[in-house]
Fold this sequence. Notes:
The chain is mainly α.
Amino acid sequence: xxxxxxxxxxxxVKAYISGEGGTETVAKKYKVARTCLQQWVAQYELTGSxxxxxxxxxxxxxxxxxxxxxxxxxxxxxxxxxxxxxxxGTICAWRKRYITGGTEALFQKQGRRSKMPKKSxxxxxxxxxxxxxxxxxxxxxxxxxxxxxxxxxxxxxxxxKDSKNKKSESSKN
Length: 173
């Protein structure tokens, strides 16, 4: 979901087009960033509407956009308008990733890192070769697992017991 509704964007753009002031004045009046206003005006003048936000782009698309921008010597704003990208900063970020990491960087998935430990607590060797620390870690993990399993089983039994009691009470009434 975008921060500003389409109606609000349209009101701000029409205020600018009608001559209420320059980009700086109108942006301050409506409390939006000047660059946002510039992009909204450009989108509206080019297509008559506003681009819907897109969250995911393929690596091929990113590469195509950067190549097109390079071939035609376009600014980030012009390129964003042509390809329907809502934020020109997105293209700048892609370019930086491409410069630092090459094409592979454009194909890497973005997002938060997993909180799961990367290294398994269970050693990848026969149990006879485990060190005392490895065996202790394994036994602790096994103990925690069994505790959770027991708690879940007890919870299920309690739920079943409660539902049986409710059924018997409702049948008595």
